[in-house]
C-alpha cells in the first residue's frame, strides 16, 4: 500500500500543476499520441491514393475526395444513433472497445499495401478497386467507431476534471490537436516516400494501442463506470428523449448555431486560402503552406489562452467574444494585400477560432445531465459535419459561380471573388457572436452564484 502511494503521488503532483490531475494527465498523453497517429494516417492515405494508386488517372481527384466522404458520412449515418448506446454503457469500457477496434482496422489495412503476399490471390496482391474499397471501408469504420469514442470521452472528462478546470482540460486537448495538425502532415510525407504506406498504418495502429493502455490505467470514479439503470431500455424512446431535451435547451441550441457558423467560416477560409494567397496576396503558391501553419500556431496559442480567459471572464462570454473577434479579423484580412500582414492575421484567426472550440465542451457539460451527454453529442457531431460540407460547397459556389469575374469598386475599395467571400464569412462570425451573446445571457452569472 505504501509503495503504491509513493508511485502515484509524484505523478499526481505533476498533473495538478500542468495537466490538472493524474487521471487527466494519463488520458491527455494517450490522446495526444492517438491524434498524431491519426493525422499521419489521414495524410498518408491522400498521398498514397494520389501518387500511387490513382496516379495519372482522370478519376484521381474523385478517388481522393472519396476518402473525405468516407470520413464524414459516419457522423450522419452512425452519429445520431450512437449517443443512445454511449449513454447506456460504461464510458471507459466504450472507449477501450473503440480503441481496440480502430487498432485492428488500421493494422488489417496493412494487408492492402502488398507488404505481405496474400496466398488466396493470383499475384498475392489485391486488385486496385479492392484496395480502394478496403481503404474507404476502413476509413468509414474507424470514423464510425469515433462516433462512440468521442462522446464517451467528453463524459469521462466531465467525471475526471472539476467543473472549474474543464475549460483548461478542453484547451489542453485542443492544443494537442493543433500541434498534431502541424507535426502529423510533416511526418507523413517523408515517411511515405522512405518506407511506404504500411509504416503510417502501423504508427496509427500503435497510437490506438497507446490510447487503449492509458485509458486502462485511468482510475475512474464510480459515477464514470456506472451504466444507465431504471426502466427497460427502449432505443427510440431514449433517442426522442435526447432530441426533446436538446431542442428545449436554450444553451444547447445557441451552441449549435455557434458551432455550425464557426465551422462554415473556418472551412470557407481553408477552401479558398490557396486562391487568396496567389490571387489576392500575389504570392507564389510555394508559400501557401505557411498560411495553414500560421493558423496552427494561433490555434496552439489560443488553446492555452482561451482556458485562462474562460476562468476569468466565464465560458459564455469567452465564446461570443471569440466569435466576434474572429469575425472582425477575417473582415480585416479580406482587405489585406501584403503576405506578411496576412500571415500575422491568420495567427489571430486561429487563436480566436480555437477560443470557440475550447468553450463549447465545458458549456455542453454544464447544460447537459450526464445520462444524456451521448445523445446531445449525437446532435452536435452531424451538425459539425454538415457545417464542413455546407461551408465547402458554399465557398466554392460563391467564388466560382456567383462572384466569378467580380470586380467592384466602392469608395476606393475594390472587391473581388475571394475577398468578398472572406468578408461574408467574417460578417457571419460577427452575427453569430450577437446570437450567442443573447442566447447565453446569464450563463456565467448563474455559475458564479
Secondary-structure topology with pairs:
Elements lengths: L1 H17 L3 H32 L6 H18 L1 H10 L2 H18 L19 H33 L5 H30 L1 H20 L5 H4 L9 H14 L1 H31 L7 H26 L1 H20 L4 H29 L5 H30 L5 E3 L2 E3 L1 H23 L3 H6 L1
Antiparallel strand pairs: 1-2
Helix pairs in contact: 1-2, 2-3, 2-6, 2-7, 2-8, 3-6, 3-15, 4-6, 4-10, 4-15, 5-6, 5-8, 6-15, 7-8, 7-12, 7-14, 11-14, 11-15, 11-16, 12-13, 12-14, 13-14, 13-16, 15-16
Q: What can you tell me about this protein's structure?
A:
- There is one protein chain.
- By secondary structure, the chain is mostly helical.
- It folds into two domains: about 1-220, MFS general substrate transporter like domains (Growth Hormone, Chain: A, Up-down Bundle), CATH 1.20.1250.20; about 240-449, Growth Hormone, Chain: A (Up-down Bundle).
- About 80% of the residues lie in helices and about 0% in strands.
- The chain is built from 17 helices and two strands.
- The chain has helices spanning about 1-20, 20-55, 60-75, 80-90, 90-110, 130-160, 165-195, 195-215, 220-225, 235-250, 250-280, 290-315, 315-335, 340-365, 375-400, 415-440, 445-449; strands at about 410, 415.
- The protein has a two-stranded antiparallel sheet with strand order 1-2.
- A hairpin with a 2-residue loop joins strand 1 (about 410) and strand 2 (about 415).
Short description:
With 449 residues, the chain is mainly alpha-helical. Helix content is 80%, strand content 1%.
Amino acid at each position: 500500500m505504501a509503495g503504491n502511494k509513493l508511485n502515484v503521488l509524484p505523478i499526481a503532483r505533476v498533473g495538478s500543476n500542468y495537466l490538472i490531475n493524474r487521471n487527466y494527465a494519463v488520458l491527455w498523453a494517450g490522446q495526444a499520441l492517438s491524434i498524431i497517429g491519426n493525422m499521419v494516417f489521414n495524410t498518408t492515405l491522400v498521398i498514397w491514393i494520389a501518387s500511387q494508386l490513382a496516379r495519372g488517372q482522370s478519376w484521381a481527384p474523385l478517388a481522393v475526395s472519396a476518402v473525405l466522404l468516407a470520413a464524414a458520412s459516419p457522423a450522419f449515418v452512425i452519429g445520431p444513433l450512437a449517443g443512445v448506446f454511449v449513454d447506456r454503457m460504461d464510458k471507459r469500457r466504450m472507449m477501450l472497445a473503440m480503441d481496440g477496434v480502430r487498432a485492428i482496422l488500421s493494422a488489417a489495412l496493412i494487408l492492402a499495401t502488398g507488404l505481405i503476399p496474400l496466398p488466396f490471390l493470383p499475384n498475392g496482391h489485391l486488385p486496385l478497386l479492392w484496395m480502394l474499397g478496403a481503404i474507404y471501408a476502413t476509413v468509414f469504420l474507424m470514423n464510425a467507431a469515433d462516433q462512440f469514442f468521442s462522446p464517451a470521452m467528453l463524459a469521462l472528462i466531465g467525471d475526471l476534471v472539476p467543473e472549474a478546470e474543464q475549460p483548461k482540460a478542453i484547451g489542453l486537448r485542443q492544443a494537442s490537436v493543433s500541434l498534431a495538425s502541424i507535426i502529423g502532415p510533416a511526418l507523413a510525407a517523408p515517411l511515405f516516400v522512405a518506407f511506404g504506406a504500411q509504416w503510417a498504418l502501423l504508427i496509427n495502429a500503435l497510437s490506438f494501442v497507446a490510447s487503449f493502455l492509458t485509458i486502462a490505467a485511468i482510475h475512474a470514479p464510480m459515477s464514470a463506470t456506472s451504466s444507465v439503470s431504471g426502466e427497460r431500455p427502449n432505443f427510440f424512446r431514449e433517442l426522442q428523449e435526447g432530441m426533446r431535451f436538446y431542442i428545449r435547451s436554450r444553451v444547447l441550441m445557441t451552441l449549435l448555431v455557434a458551432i455550425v457558423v464557426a465551422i462554415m467560416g473556418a472551412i470557407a477560409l481553408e477552401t479558398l486560402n490557396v486562391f487568396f494567397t496567389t490571387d489576392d496576396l500575389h504570392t507564389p503558391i510555394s508559400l501557401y503552406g505557411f498560411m495553414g501553419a500560421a493558423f496552427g500556431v494561433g490555434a496552439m496559442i489560443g488553446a492555452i489562452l482561451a482556458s485562462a480567459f474562460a476562468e476569468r471572464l466565464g465560458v459564455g462570454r469567452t465564446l461570443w467574444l471569440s466569435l466576434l473577434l474572429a469575425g472582425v479579423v477575417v473582415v480585416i484580412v479580406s482587405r489585406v494585400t501584403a503576405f506578411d500582414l496576412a500571415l500575422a492575421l491568420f495567427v489571430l484567426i486561429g487563436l480566436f477560432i480555437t477560443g470557440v472550440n475550447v468553450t463549447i465542451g465545458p458549456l455542453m457539460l454544464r447544460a447537459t445531465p450526464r445520462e444524456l451527454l451521448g445523445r446531445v453529442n449525437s446532435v452536435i457531431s452531424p451538425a459539425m459535419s454538415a457545417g464542413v460540407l455546407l461551408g465547402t460547397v458554399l465557398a466554392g459556389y460563391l467564388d466560382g459561380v456567383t462572384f466569378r469575374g467580380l470586380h467592384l469598386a466602392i469608395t476606393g475599395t475594390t472587391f473581388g471573388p475571394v475577398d468578398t467571400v472572406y468578408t461574408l464569412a467574417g460578417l457571419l462570425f460577427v452575427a453569430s457572436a450577437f446570437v450567442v451573446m443573447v442566447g447565453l445571457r446569464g450563463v456565467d452569472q448563474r455559475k458564479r452564484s
